[in-house]
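Q: What does the assembly look like in three dimensions?
Context provided by user:
Components: three
Sequences:
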Amino acid sequence: MTIGERIKAWWHRLGSPRWFYRVCRAWSPWLTAVGLVAIAVAFGWGLAFAPPDYQQGNSFRIMYLHVPTAILSESCYVLMGVAGLVLLVWRMKIADMVIAAAAPFGLAITGLALATGMFWGRPTWGTWWESDARTISVLVQFFLYFGVIALREAIPRAETAGRACAVLAVVGTVNVPIIKYSVDWWLTLHQPSTFTLTKAPAMPPSMYLPLIVSILGFYAFFAGNLLARVANVILARERGTQWVQSLVAGPPGGVMSCDGGREERA
Amino acid sequence: MSFDSFTDFLAMGGHAAYVWPAYGLGLVVLAGLVLAPARARRRFFAVEGERARRFASTQRDAARTGAAPRMDAEGARDASDPT
Amino acid sequence: MIETAVAEPRVLELLTAQIRRDLTVAMRSPGEMVNPLVFYLIGVTLFQFGVGAGPERLAAIATGVLWVLALLATLLALDGLFRRDYDDGTLEQLALHADPLFVGVLAKIVAHWLVTGLPLAIFAPLGALMLHLDAAAVPTLVLTLLLGTPVLSVIGAVGAALTVGLRRGAVLLALIVLPLYVPVLILGAGAVTARLDGIDPTPQIVWLAALLAFSLTLAPFAAAQGLRVGLE
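A: Here is the predicted structure of the complete assembly.
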């Protein structure tokens, strides 16, 4: 097959929930495990071995948790926006499932980003909250995730709900850079001199290397967790099909579940 | 090691009240994120397994009494259920 | 519609015809039309009671209050954007038309703004008076509202389209739409604050105009898409 044919074949397979389910089950445990290990390593490294910061002392160590979650909250939303576009343009069912799976993850991770940001901000800025481009766009992102989840719950028909959420995800994704831009503008007039939490370059490698590991770990964890959730959505949506029913009937004995634990299904 | 002792490590140079709750919260959230899909998956198979068993037993009953097997209303609903 | 040999829809004619129709329908219930404005003025009054009559305190929050109330008034009025036509089936007819749906949607938005946003911008000086906003900033306030309220209407239309069939959609609509309103608020209120500080607000105003152009171009398509989803 030519490259083009190969890509087309892969694209076509992508639209098959059953194939995607198998991909999820195969990749999810590994990605999650790798991610968690990387995160643990990064945390240990950052908490114990990175040198203390000249200005902030030891509170900066929250960075190894806060920065990856903030980055992820944005990436997750962009992923939802792209998936929304795919759903609306190519009508691929999987895209709808990705949005449904990503929204709760995004909400949790954004909440965590906000909370850890506050814990970091208090010793650094002296206040629990300081409005700057970063904090406001993360806060708005939190509300946007909420909106997608609430919209899906409010619309009774699943297919309609999926497409409505897709439209909202796309509109929200367009909005996020606009928000960033406008808040930056707002601040050029009234900027108090604050330390921006994501300023990486001035750090020595012993400080930013664990951060890189943490970010990569979080991305891997995100992928793994997302795939596990998508697998669940596929099961629920494809409940009536033959292949799901045969999974339910299942082979005798236990089968590895997504989180690596053993699970018995008679 | 950037700290002289374990107690120093725990104290985080006076910032312990911020660092440890933040990381504690992080661990809780990460754990929740891992457990939620696993639990949902288990629940799905439990519910569906029960449903399949019930259907199978009504089929068996129908076969035994010689009556026509009852259309599984739930099964039919599943197939057409859009969710 | 008389069939002609012209292949492309006469967009401008469609637009004006639809706007005229929506305005006529709106004018039939003048009480409803005035509601957002009344809400606006009531809100301003409530803030006077809430914050106390001290002019300095009121002036300090005036910009924010006037802009946020405009936001909320627009939000309240959004529910009615598609509701009446949805209820009597006209909306479905519009969607089934051979004419592109975004034209009809744009027309509805324009009519809606003429009846809601424009009065808000015109009567804002009254609110500014009550909240002791510095007179020098009032023209800027009116200008930013004139530019900003259409953006609010058009972005809000997307949310209204997505929630058009839902029974208790009002709060959901607010939840969806308010985060999207943040840039407009920042730019609009920011311009007025700049003027109060003696800084030239032209950059914010230009950006607001750019935002208006951008959203006016894209949002009707998004809203039309949302309507098709909501009408399923």
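Follow-up: The interface with chain A takes residues 1-3, 9, 12-15, 18-19, 21-23, 25-26, 29-30, 32-38, 40-42, 44-45, 48-49, 52, 75, 78-83 of chain B (CB under 8 Å).
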